[in-house]
Specification:
Length: about 300
């Protein structure tokens, strides 16, 4: 039986001067090696591309790049928002790079990817929030790698008229938008966003194309309660979301929100069981789970789960 977790203090956890507790053994990963990792890194530099793997300091970069998996980040490397959990630079971004969609598609073809994930920084400075760049990237990938399935992880576009429709019309296979945390913590963790706006975006994506897979992700370890996580699951299912990812939040630097506590592998397994019981087609829940971690294998599992669901 696992020990009862220590009392949590969310207000203290969100103070930048409060250090995170020491990482447990199950959260540590190997440092990146060379080989395929170096080849992917070189390709990104040659094409002047960004990846969320590097910009967000993802702990899985060594494993993913060694297997030639990378999450492309379009619209530059500077975000217009400043979320308390995110390691991506904040400031005034440069204009979108016109060759970027084609360069992403060329890289996808050169890497011979069966499944690709494309995300972006928030671009509240753009009239469409960057939706047209997403659409062009999807179209270019379809043209250059017609057998590659495309998963997109978008910002909320701040409700800009027609943005979602532009992206959905381009035909992604998976539409992902992360809720990140429970609604109570939005003012401190995700102050530039609104919980129910994000929820509605996911719902509208499914309404615009019922055949598309919709997906969202949560971080735990920020001071949320188990019942709050369960309620978010209910909200996502009400919005028709198919796939949920849950991972442990890790503090990128002392300036970011501190870790309130580390959830155990057993607790993550418990969250997976709860999520599946609520009707998600797939739930990925481990300490090191991230939105695009094992995305190619998960997409295959999603299709199989849908077939089984329709056949039952």
């Amino acid at each position: 039986m696992s020990k009862k977790p220590p009392p949590r203090n969310p207000e203290k956890a969100h103070r930048p001067d409060n250090p995170s507790p020491r990482k447990p053994a199950w959260i540590r990963v190997k440092a990146p090696g060379q080989g395929a990792y170096g080849e992917v890194r070189k390709l990104m530099r040659e094409k002047h591309l960004h990846t969320v793997c590097e910009e967000a300091a993802c702990p899985n970069i060594g494993e993913c790049w060694a297997h030639r998996h990378a999450t492309f980040m379009i619209l530059g490397d500077t975000c217009t928002r400043a979320c308390a959990f995110c390691n991506i630079a904040t400031g005034k971004p440069k204009p979108p790079d016109p060759p970027e969609p084609e360069n992403v598609a060329i890289s996808v073809a050169e890497m011979r990817l069966k499944h690709v994930v494309v995300t972006s920084v928030d671009r509240d400075d753009l009239e469409d929030g960057g939706a047209s760049q997403f659409a062009r990237t999807i179209t270019e990938i379809h043209e250059k790698s017609p057998k590659t399935t495309v998963e997109i992880l978008t910002p909320d576009f701040r409700g800009k008229q027609g943005a979602l429709e532009t992206v959905i019309k381009a035909g992604p296979d998976v539409f992902n938008h992360n809720l990140e945390t429970v609604p109570r913590l939005y003012p401190t963790i995700r102050p530039g966003a609104r919980y129910f706006d994000s929820l509605r975006l996911l719902e509208r994506a499914k309404e615009r194309n019922p055949a598309i897979f919709t997906k969202s992700g949560l971080m735990v370890g920020l001071g949320e309660e188990r019942m709050e996580v369960s309620q978010v699951m209910d909200d996502l299912r009400s919005a028709g979301v198919d796939f949920l990812t849950i991972g442990q939040y890790l503090q990128p630097s002392p300036k970011h929100a501190a870790v309130d506590r580390f959830w155990t592998p057993e607790e993550f397994e418990g969250l997976k069981t709860i999520g599946l019981s609520k009707g998600f087609l797939l739930v990925a829940s481990t300490p090191l789970t991230r939105s695009s971690y094992h995305a190619d294998k998960d997409f295959t599992a999603l299709r199989e789960a849908r077939r089984a669901h329709l056949a039952s």
